[in-house]
Design brief:
Blueprint (H helix, E strand, L loop, with lengths): L1 H9 L8 H42 L10 H6 L7 H27 L8 E3 L8 E5 L7 H17 L8 H10 L6 H14 E3 L3 H25 L11
Antiparallel strand pairs: 1-2, 2-3
Helix pairs in contact: 2-4, 2-8, 4-8, 5-6, 6-7
Length: 238
């Protein structure tokens, strides 16, 4: 009893953090929520923006029924058809900008078929805020996870990428380098992303990729207009 009493007498009293630290923490949490909403909005509306851009490109390139064109058609045609010039010049960006918004919108937000663990990742110093949406623990067996990781390692190795990392780290690495994969390999990577989830790029990386593509690809369309203006169809029904 004497020992316990002595400990109680010498134990420092609990110190409360100053109010300003609590206010700062609340503001940081609120900011994280606002960034998340902004980023989700950008991912959703990017798909719409790129579809509109694809229709404009179809009018400029004289594609039959341009109003039926969409960005995914450019990505899935794999360089065939009237969008070949755009594909050759901007293949990497086209595949990257098609995959990320479409997969995230369709599988993580609108048509959710699995119990995703919706979360965000960031550090306190660097501008590396991003979404991380892994599948819920226990949804896939360890054996399924191991087999999937082996597939991703084989895909990464086949195009000379470093194959170290988790399923989610390798998925985003392959999505970044989809232009080096065959059409069949890209589908395999997309299927795994839909099954196990993935990291998004950072807000800054994605925004820069989107703006850089729109500037460069629109200049490609300007070049097409100057060299072949006769095929442009901006008026009348198709």
């Amino acid at each position: 009893m004497q020992t316990d009493l002595t400990i109680d007498l010498v134990r420092p009293q609990a110190q409360h953090a100053p109010q300003k630290y609590g206010d700062l923490n609340n503001e940081a949490n609120s900011l994280n929520e606002r960034i998340g909403l902004d980023f989700q909005t950008m991912l959703i509306f990017t798909g719409m923006l790129l579809d509109v851009w694809a229709q404009i490109a179809a009018h400029v390139l004289g594609v039959a029924r341009p109003s039926k064109s969409s960005f995914i058609h450019i990505a899935k045609d794999d360089g065939q058809g009237p969008f070949a010039t755009l594909w050759q010049a901007h293949k990497q960006s086209i595949l990257w900008l098609d995959a990320l918004p479409r997969l995230y919108r369709n599988k993580m937000i609108v048509h959710r078929e699995r119990p995703w663990q919706m979360s965000t990742t960031r550090t306190l110093i660097f501008l590396d805020w991003s979404f991380w949406t892994p599948i819920a623990s226990g949804w896939a067996t360890p054996e399924e996870g191991k087999a999937t990781l082996e597939k991703l390692v084989a895909l990464a190795t086949s195009i000379g990428l470093n194959s170290d990392g988790t399923i989610h780290e390798l998925v985003i690495k392959l999505l970044r380098n989809g232009h080096q994969l065959t059409k069949e390999q890209r589908k395999e990577a997309y299927d795994i992303a839909e099954e196990f989830g993935f990291h998004t790029p950072t807000f800054q990386e994605f925004a820069h990729q989107l703006v850089d593509f729109l500037i460069a690809a629109t200049e490609t369309l300007h070049t097409s207009i100057r060299s072949n203006s006769g095929v442009v169809k901006l008026g009348g029904r198709s």
